[in-house]
Automatic annotation (TrEMBL):
It catalyses: Exonucleolytic cleavage in either 5'- to 3'- or 3'- to 5'-direction to yield nucleoside 5'-phosphates. The keyword Nuclease applies. It comes from Paraburkholderia megapolitana. Its main location: cytoplasm. GO terms for cellular component: cytoplasm; exodeoxyribonuclease VII complex. The lineage of its organism: Bacteria, Pseudomonadati, Pseudomonadota, Betaproteobacteria, Burkholderiales. This is Exodeoxyribonuclease 7 large subunit.
């Protein structure tokens, strides 16, 4: 094959030639890249890690085998989702070799979902079941004791998480005793043993709060904390339970069943333990506040005692004071009886003065009214005279222009007998037609027998 020839050509000739490991790994990597094209591979995600550089490192596995995978940042930032532990996915990858370590790996170019892994599916089913039963309800969660008398830890004696928890408790609350209830945290039957330790802690009643914890790991490593038996034991616990399993991104069924979840075992230790330095500081502040309060109380009592001693007088002096007081009250009573009369008189005088000021002067107004009446009568008379003279003038002018005056000067008005219109032209005078003549002293109807019209410019 061409791949074999290229592989052999990349190595030194001769059967006794010595080949460096780097050259051999490079040749194998080249052979793999040329022999296997891009291929889709399906499996379940395990040991997923996102590096600070943005690259993804994880393994993809099935029941028989697994393969390490790397997805560089340039391609990972375009992925539609971030795989999680237990997800079943498909990756489009190239088979390569990581030459520095000689490890076979898949260089992933694309990733897509194919469903969640078996363990994660079981996790979701159990979570939904217990949630429907009310084991995760917030109403059943209990508050942690502010000052526990003893703290219990359920974990493995060989777990690194136990050392972290003990170190934190020693630093924060060295005065609080710690009791460890040992149980394996992974493997067959681990969940049942963890549950039995939770029940034993409740039965012995020697602690006030309980920590169930272990360090981080894959979903398989943490599976003991996803079993129903442990979840029900935590939910039934009368002691408040804090779950500190794995890292901050890890969630287990025990986290939901516990009264409080901590992101890490160290965080769980910090949640249940009061910090000794803060307690001592608070105690000192309370002691100082109590001392100040006591001093202020004593000062107030001493001041009150002085005030009472000043008020303590002899009976004779008290009677003299009361007699003087009665005399003062008598004087005030007498002055108080006369004061309303004086006040009423002063108010009456003030009102009378105001009334006199605003009382109307009827004589002046009456004179003004008579003067205005005379002026109105004079004005009306003058206006009547003017109107009478104007009417006389207009009557004279009208009389001058009256048609009767024209007729009295010898003129006559000739009207057509049929139409009643004035005759103005000689052509309208036709024989046999009847006319009406208006004169100064009356009218006459005439009929013309003969007419000789003559046109003239006037008389």
């Amino acid at each position: 094959m061409n791949s074999d020839s290229s592989f052999s050509s990349s190595l030194p000739a001769g059967g006794d030639a010595v080949v460096p490991v780097s050259m051999l790994n490079r040749a194998i990597g080249t052979l793999l890249e040329r022999s296997f094209p891009l291929v889709w591979v399906s499996g379940e995600v395990s040991n997923f890690t996102r590096a600070a550089s943005g690259h993804w490192y994880f393994s993809i596995k099935d029941a028989q085998a697994q393969m390490r995978c790397v997805m560089f940042r340039g391609r990972a930032q375009h992925a539609e989702f971030t795989p999680r532990e237990g997800d079943r996915i498909e990756v489009r990858a190239l088979v390569t070799m990581y030459e520095p370590r000689g490890e076979l790996q898949l260089n992933v170019e694309a990733v897509r979902r194919t469903g969640q892994g078996r363990l994660y599916e079981a996790f979701l089913r159990l979570k939904a079941q217990l949630e429907s039963e009310g084991l995760f309800d917030a109403s059943r969660k209990r508050a942690l004791p502010a000052h526990p008398r003893a703290i219990g830890i359920v974990t493995s004696l060989q777990a690194a998480a136990l050392r972290d928890v003990l170190t934190t408790l020693t630093r924060r609350a060295p005065h609080v005793p710690v009791i460890v209830y040992p149980a394996p945290v992974q493997g067959v039957g681990a969940s049942a043993k963890l549950a039995s330790m939770v029940e034993a802690a409740n039965a012995r009643r020697e602690v006030d709060v309980l920590i169930v914890c272990r360090g981080g790991g894959s979903i398989e490593d943490l599976w003991a904390f996803n079993e129903e038996v442990l979840a029900r034991a935590i939910a039934a616990s009368e002691l408040p339970v804090v779950s500190g399993v794995g890292h901050e991104t890890d969630f287990t069924i025990a986290d939901f069943a516990a009264d409080l979840r901590a992101p890490t075992p160290t965080g769980a230790a910090e949640l249940v333990s009061p910090q000794r330095a803060l307690l001592l500081r608070d105690l000192g502040q309370r002691h100082e506040a109590l001392a100040r309060s006591f001093d202020r109380t004593m000062e107030r009592r001493a001041q009150q005692l002085d005030w009472l001693s000043r008020r303590l007088v002899s009976p004779a002096e008290r009677l003299a004071r009361q007699r003087t007081h009665l005399q003062q009250l008598g004087v005030r009573l007498a002055s108080a009886g006369a004061r309303p009369v004086r006040d009423a008189q002063a108010r009456f005088a003030l009102v009378q003065m105001r009334w006199q000021r605003w009382r109307p002067d009827t004589a002046t107004h009456r004179a003004t009214l008579q003067r205005l009446t005379q002026r109105l009568d004079d004005a009306l008379l003058r206006q009547h005279e003017r109107h009478t003279a104007r009417v006389a003038t207009l009557a004279a002018r009208l009389d001058v222009l009256s048609p009767q005056r024209t007729l009295e000067r010898g003129y006559a008005a000739l009207l057509d007998g049929q139409s009643g219109r004035a005759v103005r032209a000689p052509s309208a005078l036709k024989p046999g037609r009847r006319f009406t003549v208006h004169l100064a002293d009356g009218t006459a109807d005439i009929a013309l027998a003969d007419v000789q019209p003559r046109l003239t410019d006037g008389f």
